[in-house]
Amino acid sequence: MPEIEKLVAAFEDPAVVELMINDDGSVYVEKGGPRLQLLDARVGPQDALAFVRGVVGAAEEFGPLRPYADLSATDGSRVHVLAPPLAKGLTVTVRKRPGRRPGLGQLAQANALSKGCAGFLDYCVRQKMNLLIVGGTSSGKTTLLSALCGRLGPDERILVLEDTPELTLPQSHVLYLRTRLRDAAGLPDVTLRELMINVLRMRPDRVIVGETRGPEAADMLQAMNVGQDGMMTTLHANSAREAVARLETLVLQAGMDMPLKAVRQNIVSAVDFIVFMARLADGSRRVVQVSEITGLEVETVSMADLFTMDLRRGPGGLEARLRPTGAMPRFYDRLRRQGVEPPLEFFRGDS
Q1: Domain span holding position 24
Q2: Which of 81, 180, 283, 346 might form a disulfide with 190, Cβ 3.0–4.6 angstroms?
Q3: 130 CB contacts (<8 Å, ≥6 apart)?
């Protein structure tokens, strides 16, 4: 079988999650577990370029004037290309787009989170809490974000901002806005920050940011603080605490002239909950922690854990249980003052 056909076959294999072509021509795939598998293929630069053009559906060119690019395959998969002189040869990384992302109930059935935690996050979405979903690479952040977006109201006007299209929502009134970076035609960049400024003039009921990783964080926090409720986004971080520190850094990188204490106060006022996801040793992607941002204590953002994961090594292998800590969310007190009795069943036992 020609090498290009091996690449296409791997790309079309529904079990393959990621496909990587290195600059030496070796090909690796992630399939059926966390460990990468070496594919029986040796790909030359022309075959790699032909593969990219085939899956993207366009005659892309790469070189010194365009040494890298984030592209979308015709099926919605994410394609990242790195070319000489940044690498010895064409390097391609493909993150496959699932044929259908699971809903929140399906994630709970698959033990990605407990039923109680799923119910609580669903309630937070309906109450228009601002949620930050954090975790490392390939920890399941976008999958959880997609499931939570599926719980948005059918009558809401939803604006989705992404670098690379990954989200497909079931609601009818959804606008998908995409950045434009490293355009082959030499057109100017359009960043997430510029999209964020524009969408706030478009009368959104909800704003979803696929991933926050730059100065758009400052505009997102500002939007949350001026009444744009129910926003959700993902962020790369290795813990809930690290996510707060990363947000601080991104806001300061935006060039906003404010002291660190003011930045932290903005975060406290804007973000309600941080959901931390991780990829465990057995390859499963789980919600490990749900924390509420509770205030500012001695210039440090304080948080209260509502759900935490209990990891144990049992006779059958790794046992992971997401359990409520016993703490109650602070917005429950606000609801009670408004005459609403919030549900408590989410926090009973291992529900």
Answers
A1: 3-95
A2: 180
A3: 224, 229, 230, 231, 232, 270, 271, 272, 273
In angstroms, rounded to a whole number, what is the distance separating the alpha carbons of residues 6 and 29? 12
HSE (CB half, 13 Å, CA atoms) of 239? 6
On whether the CB atoms of residues 300 and 263 are closer than 8 A, the answer is no
Contacts of 227 (CB under 8 A, 6+ apart): none
Domains: count for the chain = 2
pLDDT tens per residue, range 133-182: 999 988 999 999 999 999 999 999 999 999 878 888 999 999 999 887 66
Summary mean pLDDT of the chain: 89
Which of 95, 112, 142 delimits the end of a domain?
95
Please give the full DSSP string across 115-154, using - where no structure is assigned.
HHHHHHHHHHHHTT--EEEEESTTSSHHHHHHHHHTTS-T
Domain of residue 66, CATH code: 3.30.450.90
Same domain, 294 and 152: yes
**Contact (Cβ atoms closer than 8 angstroms) between residue 259 and residue 221:** no
R_g of the chain computed on alpha carbons: 21
Query: CATH code at 164?
Result: 3.40.50.300
The encoded tokens of residue 314 equal 């049992």
Q: Which long-range CB contacts under 8 A does 240-244 form with residues at least 24 apart?
A: 240/134, 240/274, 240/276, 240/289, 240/291, 240/303, 241/303, 242/134, 243/132, 243/134, 243/274, 243/276, 244/274, 244/293, 244/301, 244/303
Instruction: Please list the residues that pair with 302 across neighbouring strands.
Output: 295
